[in-house]
Structure formats: structure tokens, C-alpha cells
User: Fold this.
Amino acid sequence: MTAEEQTAEGQHVPMQGEDVTPKKDGGVVKLIKREGTGTELPMTGDKVFVHYVGTLSDGTHFDSSRDRGEKFSFELGKGQVIKAWDTGVATMKVGELCQLTCKPEYAYGSAGSPPKIPPNATLIFEVELFEFRGEDITENEDGGIIRRIITKGEGYSKPNEGALVEVTVEGTYDERTFDERELKFEVGDGENLSLPPGVEKAITAMEQGEEATFTIKPKYGFGNVGNEKFNIPGGATLQYKIKLTAFEKAKESWEMTSQEKLEQSSIVKERGTQYFKVAKYKQASVQYKKIVSWMEHEAGWSAEDQVKVKALQLAAHLNLAMCYLKMHEPNQAFESCDKALEMDSSNEKALFRRGEALFGMKEFDRARDDFQRVVQLYPANKVAKTQVAVCQKRIKEQHEKDKRIYANMFQKFAERDSKKEAEKIKSNIKEKCSEEMEVENGEKEVPCQATA
Assistant:
């Protein structure tokens, strides 16, 4: 296929290559100079790695990654480069070398890019595609969830925690489809539907109407345990194809009135309790965190509401501490207990749970102090009395262990010093022998008679 280029005189002349624009308006004409390999093309959001040489229509070079000796990379379809590049590179295969002839409307337009690119300039790029890879959507970019967009969504809004979403999901493992459903649920409730955490994480990165594939590593999948229902072994990497059909965002904190926060806090507290009762501690903690977030910086409560707010905040911190203890995260539990104790310095549950957290952190002295404080304030708490005894036992065991460590350490030091002293004596003897063995006045050497 060929396209036409208008000359200064207004004549149309044929231009080699294929028009790759969706509108077929001749905005980007591609001429393949070397075929690539395979059949796969980069998708929207993929990170692509290319070399390029850019020239004006008169042959003047204005930019070259090859001259810099470093490949150029960008995320395809995100507007990080001129429109011609997003359009043209999306049609390339790995290893392909092509020429892109780009009209001003797909390049720098009537403004140009001074001083190198004049206004209304047609640009010619020689581009070589070396590699492309999916987009890492995890916070730490640890490679745990890689997205490849099949169909770009609309707008910029994305679902948040608590949003009501309508999706279709198709999960595959080892070329076997294990889950294929249409779902409508609230983000945060995915585990109840046997969805791994990575799927909900993926959904919150999507736009309405978007369809994408996600590669989900075990950390964000079913972990080292696997999933018996779907016959997924531990340590499995999953593939999910997800389409976000529609969603309704949950109200953000700043969008809610004080009364709405108060009402919603009571609702999510009950929801958290229900999760906790069925041992879904992570989901429960998400609910309690909402209360902390909503109440933390709010001001202007009435005297009556302040009592309710304090009760909700205290309950949220205490329940969070319990969730963290169940999830074996003692440091987090300790922080939640501290916040509860800032509100009520003699709270029985806060003191006891902080003691449990410190015990989990192996700080037995401090744990014993908290349990003793509970016993002093609440003598009827027999479990706290037991925990004091357990802490004393652990402290004693730790002391005994330390004694053995120090005893061995001192013994090693003594042995080392003794060895050094022996070597010193031996060295002195050698020196003395050496002196006696010297030949004086031509006489025979006298054997050393010294002994240690």
C-alpha cells in the first residue's frame, strides 16, 4: 500500500510504505526495512525499547539514540512521545527495522520544536524495536503483577477500595482455565469469591471498558499454599484476563460529611467483626483501617458525637491490634495498641494485647511489665497472671542462654590469650637459641640447652 505526500506546489506524489493510522489519513506511513520475528506486537502500556534516527524531510539529522549509544524506552500509548510513535511502534515486531514518515499533525504540529524542528515539519524516523514488556502495576515494582492491555479503557477514573465493580474474569494456570465468571462485587471482598489479592489489585489499576491480561506471581496469587478448590499448587504463577465492564467508586474520605463518616464507620465496624469471626483477618483489618482514616483528622463534632467517635476509634485500634496478632505481625499490633493507649492509658485490652505483641517481638521484659500492669489494674484477669509467669520463665531462659554464650565467649578469649602467650614464649626461646648458636671467634656452634 502507498500513501501520498503533498508538495509545496500542491501536487500529490506517491510515498512508499503503508498508512498505519486508524483513520487512514496518511499521518504515519511505515516502510519496513527489515522484518521482525514472531507474531506478537506491543500493547498499550507496554514498555518498549528502541533505537532511532530522526531526520527532517530535507535529510537533516536532528536526533539519534544511536549517536548516544543508549536505547530509548517509553510506555506505549501513554502520550509520553509524539502521536506518530505511539501509532507506528504499536505495529512493530521485535527485531523489526522500519521507517516512519510522520506528518506534522502526528509530530510537533504548527509549533515545531525549536531550534531543531521547524513549524509544520514532516519528520522521518528510522526505528528498530529490540524488546517490549508488560507494565508492572505493583507499588514497589517487584514484578509481582504485570499488565498487558488488550483494549484501552475510557477516562482516567479507576475503582478504589470499596468500589462496586462489574467484571468478567478468566483465570488460567499451566494452559488450563480454572476460573471463568462474570462478577459484581465490592473491592475488598474478593477473597469471599475465591479471587487472589492480585486480581483486586489489578482491578483498581483499570479504567472502565478496559480489557487486559495480568501475570500474577505467587505473592499476589494463592501464595505457597495454593488453592484446593481450583486445583492450583503452591507457588503457582497465574494468568488472568479481566474486563472491567462498569464500576461505581466508593466515596473518598474528603467527599463524606461528618455524619456520613460516623454512619459508615458503624457499618464497616460490623462488617469487620463478621470477617473476624470467620478468621478473615486481612479483610477485617481493611474495614477497621477505614474507621481510623475517617476519624483521624475530622473536627467539629458535637459533644454527643465526640463520645461515639472516641468509642469507634478505640474499638478500631483494639480490633486492628487483634487482627495483626492473628496475622503474626506483632510490630503492627504494638503500634495499634499504643494508639489505643493514647486514648485510654489503662485500657485492659490494649495493655494485654500490647503485652502479646511485645512477647511476639521477644521483648519479654517489656511484655511482663504490661501483663503485670493488667494484673494490678484488673486482678480478676487470670490469663494476665499466667502470662507474667510465662514471661518470667522466658526471661530466665534467656539469661541462662546469655550466660552460656558469654561463658563460651570468655573461654574462647582465654584460650586465644593462652595460645598467644605460648607463642610468645616459644618465640623468645627461639631467639635465645639463635643467640647461643652463633659462632664466636671461629669456635664450633654450641647446641642450645634451654628448655621451656
User: Anything to note?
Assistant: Confidence is low (pLDDT under 50) at residues 5-14, 439-452. Residues 31 and 156 are 34 Å apart (CA to CA). Residues 382-436 form the longest helix (55 residues).
